[in-house]
């Protein structure tokens, strides 16, 4: 589809159906297509895009995040009724009622993503036996699966600081990046991001054929790719130079 669009002369395309924040660049010979995925106002991370046409060859795209929305909790009493109705039907899946304690629209949308990950994305995207085994592990456990204490000492890595998070956090952060791209970094501790980078590097270097290790390697590789994409917050599209520059 990208090739067909580019060959038809389309250079910049805005799409919103996916409800994600993302930028994709495809080049075909002397033609380039920039696909800008516009996030939703009602999903993580709630935001909209502002396009400024500076000239025929330069466009500026800026992403505005909605952290605070007046009266965002106005319909919460109706959700309370829905939850009470769900409690009466054991065949229905119940969402976490704590979401109704959200103090801001940003927190509400982040909690919403967390519930989507728990109830839909993990069951649909990952093997059940893999998740059941991995969810018991914290960051240090994941590290010690492929490195012993002596190896870590030689690399000057303190495994204890990896204990602050677990595999469930890894999957949630992965979906944060899938939904919000670089904007997700505001919702993930910098220390943890650095630890993810360490784990991704160590897992890629590991040559184990153990299926569990191989699957974990894939998780960290996916996380790395999602967290290191093209600019998706504030950037300039230069159609003549066929490049994107982060602003």
List the helices and strands and how they pair.
Blueprint: H1 2-7, E1 12-15, E2 22-28, E3 31-37, E4 47-53, E5 58-65, H2 76-87, H3 105-125, H4 128-134, H5 139-144, H6 149-154, H7 167-180, H8 190-205, H9 211-226, E6 234-238, E7 243-246
Parallel strand pairs: 1-3
Antiparallel strand pairs: 2-3, 4-5, 5-6, 6-7
Helix pairs in contact: 3-7, 7-9, 8-9
Task: Describe, in short, the structure shown.
This protein is 42% helix and 17% strand. With 247 residues, it is an alpha+beta fold.
The count of helical stretches stands at 9
Distance between the termini: 29 Å
Shape: globular
Number of β-strand runs: 7
Strand order of the largest sheet: 4-5-6-7
Low-confidence runs: none
Count up the domains: 2
Q: What percent of residues adopt helix (DSSP H or I)? A: 40-55%
Oligomer: single chain
Q: Estimate the mean pLDDT confidence.
A: 96
Give a quick account of the main beta sheet: strands, pairing sense, barrel closure.
4 strands, antiparallel
Report strand %. Answer: 15-25%
Output the radius of gyration: 21 Å
What does this structure look like?
The protein has 247 residues and is an alpha+beta fold. The protein has two domains: 2-68 and 230-246, no CATH class; 102-226, no CATH class. It has nine helices and seven strands. α7 (167-180) packs parallel to α9 and α8 crosses α9 (211-226). It is globular.
List keywords for this structure.
alpha+beta, 2 domains, 247 residues, four-stranded antiparallel sheet, 17% strand
């Amino acid at each position: 589809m990208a090739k067909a669009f580019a060959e038809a002369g389309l250079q910049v395309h805005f799409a919103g159906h996916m409800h994600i924040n993302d930028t994709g660049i495809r080049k075909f010979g002397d033609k380039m297509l920039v696909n800008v995925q516009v996030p939703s106002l009602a999903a993580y991370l709630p935001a909209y895009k502002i396009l400024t046409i500076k000239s025929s060859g330069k466009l500026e795209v800026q992403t505005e995040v909605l952290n605070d929305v007046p009266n965002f909790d106005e319909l919460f009493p109706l959700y309370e009724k829905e939850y009470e109705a769900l409690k009466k039907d054991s065949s229905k899946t119940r969402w976490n009622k704590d979401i109704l304690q959200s103090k801001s629209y940003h927190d509400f949308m982040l909690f919403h993503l967390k519930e989507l990950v728990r109830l839909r994305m993990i069951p649909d995207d990952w093997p059940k036996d893999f998740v059941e085994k991995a969810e018991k592990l914290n960051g240090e456990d994941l590290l010690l699966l492929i490195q012993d204490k002596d190896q870590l000492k030689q690399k000057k890595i303190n495994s204890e600081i990896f204990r602050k998070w677990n595999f469930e956090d890894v999957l949630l952060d992965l979906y944060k990046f899938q939904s919000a791209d670089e904007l997700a970094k505001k919702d993930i501790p910098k220390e943890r991001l650095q630890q993810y980078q360490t784990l991704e590097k160590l897992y890629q270097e590991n040559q184990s054929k153990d299926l569990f290790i191989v699957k974990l390697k894939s998780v960290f590789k996916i996380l790395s790719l999602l967290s290191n994409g093209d600019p998706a917050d504030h950037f300039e599209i230069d159609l003549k130079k066929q490049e994107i520059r982060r602003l």
